[in-house]
Amino acid sequence: MKKRDGLSRAFSLDGQVMYTGGCLCGALRYEARGEPQAQGYCFCADCRKASGSGFVPFLTFAPSSVRIEGEAKVSVVRSFRGRDAVRNRCAACGSLVFGGPVGKAEFHTLYAGSLDDPSLFRPTMAIFRRDKPDWVQMPPGLEVFETLPGM
Q: Rounded distance, CA 78 to CA 80, Å?
């Protein structure tokens, strides 16, 4: 592993940062190359309920940057924007792993809890602040949005 920005990161043969991860049992795996488009916390009610927690820590990548192996169980609900919100869990163990329809997404959301190296998660934003439970503490220095950026 090479060092960059004080963090231990794996690099692909072409020199891009690689993020790897997957589910609890290892049956659903992913690899994402390059830097994420965004990293942060989502406090929307859908993410809270899907995760069973107060938020979902996420990283977004262009679909061309992500390779997925294994079988996913897909769930679809209507999103804040009125489009489909697609979440993918491992078909074997049920772990929440990534968001977006494979091969059709504008971006894939990788859930930071599924990273092999959680130190690669460097959040810069919090979305859906309006839905954040009072008992959740946000780290200082995040750019905070009441719903989605630009809305």
A: 7
Chosen CATH of 2-144 out of 3.90.1590.10, 3.40.50.2300, 3.90.640.10, 3.40.50.720: 3.90.1590.10
Provide the token pair at 59. 């990283």
Can you give the pTM of this predicted structure? 0.86
Taking only the tens place, the pLDDT of each residue in 117-135 is 999 999 999 999 999 999 9
The domain segmentation of the chain, as residue ranges, is 2-144
